UniProtKB/TrEMBL annotation:
First-tier enzyme category under EC: ligase
UniProt subunit comment: Homodimer.
Subcellular location: Cytoplasm
Protein's UniProt name: Aspartate--tRNA ligase
CDD domains per UniProt: Asp_Lys_Asn_RS_N
Name of the encoding gene: aspS
GO biological process, alphabetically ordered: aspartyl-tRNA aminoacylation
One term under GO cellular component: aminoacyl-tRNA synthetase multienzyme complex
InterPro entries for this protein: Aa-tRNA-synt_II, aa-tRNA-synth_II, aa-tRNA-synth_II/BPL/LPL, Asp-tRNA_synthase_2, Asp/Asn-tRNA-synth_IIb, NA-bd_OB-fold, NA-bd_OB_tRNA
The UniProt record lists the keyword Ribosomal protein: no
Provenance organism: Glaciibacter psychrotolerans
SUPFAM superfamilies reported for this sequence: Class II aaRS and biotin synthetases, Nucleic acid-binding proteins
Keywords from the named record: Aminoacyl-tRNA synthetase, ATP-binding, Cytoplasm, Ligase, Nucleotide-binding, Protein biosynthesis
EC number(s) from the headed UniProt entry: 6.1.1.12
Entry GO MF terms: aspartate-tRNA ligase activity; ATP binding; RNA binding
Length: 442
């Protein structure tokens, strides 16, 4: 394979012969001169072909003019030509005068989507939608963000896990559970790596992380729910409370945002008109009960008293935090045990509250974290309290019967982080291939 010159690197080359590959963005087939805008994953460049004329000034049908006339948008081509710097050229101040074109694949001329097509239509034709530089940037940002998190984890001696996604039991609640036929029995798709990341603590791994798929049979069509999503999980041992998990969580966010700003800050500003702000630590922390009170004083009452913060409540508390602390992140802490899973540790002396938190970013929940209950007798009591059957989770309880350290961790939806970071209105925009109740294709 010959080394390919990325279009973004052409500007740094001197005038002279070049070979470039990409897909056709536009063709302007004029009488005396032809222009093609060629794109690759890094940028776009203008190609120019002055047409040949005979002695009488009549245009001659020669190459590459004939091939250019037959080019459709989206065709993949490799060209050779003469690179020339010319500041009059609007597109990057360079131009390539064509010598030859090799067409690798002709595209059907009628493109099924346009930039103003509906999100649903764009998702039907996701591979074409992803040719848009804005979409391409989203996945570069995702790569940089994940890389920064991994670097943090690896530098701090975390072990990476790949936990199974086929399970014999539910991993969060029995609601939102996908059941699959598994030979002569049933299996369930993992809703989160929860139990197995806790198992790693009993295995003495100390600090772990996983970035992997999670499945929820959630029939809702909100902008922030998918039936399959990428979950970023981390779990650590020897913690004193959920405060230690929040410290880890904010360090990771700082690492991720610092890397994204450094590498893509200018492009994000140019394409999304968003200024990436690296958050300062500590992030504000507000107990949920207090947050509800603050929101109430602002004139919004969260529906039921013992319920979770609803989306409007999240937006309201985020607005308060932004005004008061100038911060885009806030930890809401100490959720009621009635709305938290059985494995969350409850307050010493007040079992109605848990050592837990949600992380809100730009007004939407991106993460849930907690200290876990590691004492098996208390864990069994908490299961009973929730009316759960013990039998199905005996394998999980065993993790705590043979010794376990204090521990805690969090799970965070990758797409939610990207959506809110880039001020997008739906996780569909930032998910490579979205899965929802009515979407299994492409
Ligand atoms: P929870 O169920 O709150 O907690 O999920 C954690 C985070 O995962 C993301 N998320 C989703 N993203 C897209 N579509 C969905 N349907 C969806 N459901 C959840 C959210 C959410 O904040 N085991 C615990 C975490 C822990 O305590 O470690 C858990 O799964 O961003």
């Amino acid at each position: 394979m010959t080394e390919r010159v990325l279009i973004k690197n052409l500007a740094a080359l001197e005038d002279g012969p070049v070979t470039v590959s990409g897909w056709v963005d536009t063709v302007r087939d004029q009488k005396k001169v032809q222009f093609v805008v060629l794109r690759d994953e890094s940028g776009a460049v203008q190609l120019v072909n002055p047409r040949t004329t005979d002695a009488d000034g009549v245009v001659v049908a020669d190459e590459p003019a004939t091939t250019i006339s037959g080019l459709s948008q989206g065709s993949f081509i490799t060209i050779t030509g003469e690179l020339k710097h010319d500041e009059r050229v609007k597109l990057g101040g360079i131009e390539v005068k064509l010598a030859s074109i090799e067409v690798l694949s002709h595209a059907i001329p009628e493109t099924p989507i346009a930039p103003d097509s509906s999100l649903d239509k764009r998702m039907d034709w996701r591979f074409l939608d992803l040719r848009n530089p804005k979409q391409n940037l989203i996945f570069r940002i995702q790569t940089t963000f994940e890389h920064a998190l991994r670097t943090y984890w690896i530098d701090n001696d975390f072990i990476e896990l790949h936990t199974p996604k086929l399970m014999a039991s539910a991993s969060e609640s029995r609601a939102e559970l996908f059941e699959v036929e598994y030979f002569d029995t049933k299996a369930y798709l993992a809703q989160s790596p929860q139990f197995f990341k806790q198992m790693a603590q009993s295995a003495g791994f100390g600090k772990i992380f996983e970035v992997g798929p999670a499945f929820r049979a959630d029939p809702s069509f909100t902008s922030r729910h998918a039936t399959e999503f990428t979950s970023i999980d981390s779990e650590i041992s020897w913690i004193d409370s959920h405060e230690d998990v929040m410290k880890l969580h904010e360090d990771l966010m700082v690492a991720g945002f610092t890397a994204v700003k450094a590498k893509h800050g200018d492009e994000i500003k140019a394409l999304f008109d968003v200024e990436i702000a690296v958050p300062t630590t500590p992030f504000p922390r507000i107990p949920l009960a207090e947050a509800k009170q603050i929101v109430k004083e602002r004139g919004y009452e969260v529906p039921r008293d013992d319920d979770d913060m609803d989306p409007e409540g999240e937006r309201q508390i985020a607005a308060y935090v932004k005004e008061t602390y100038g911060h885009e992140f806030v930890f809401l802490t100490d959720y009621a045990s009635s709305i938290r899973p059985f494995y969350h540790m409850r307050h010493e002396g007040d079992s109605s509250l848990t050592n837990s938190y949600d992380l809100i970013f730009n007004g939407t929940e991106i993460s849930t974290g907690a200290q876990r209950e590691h004492r098996v007798d208390v864990l069994i009591e908490q299961m009973k309290d929730k009316g759960m059957e013990q039998e199905e989770l005996e394998f999980y309880l065993d993790f705590f019967r043979y010794g376990a350290p204090s521990h805690g961790g969090f799970g965070m939806g990758l797409a939610r982080v990207l959506m809110l970071m880039l001020h997008q209105t739906s996780i569909r925009e930032v998910t490579y291939l979205f899965r929802g109740p009515t979407r299994l294709l492409p």
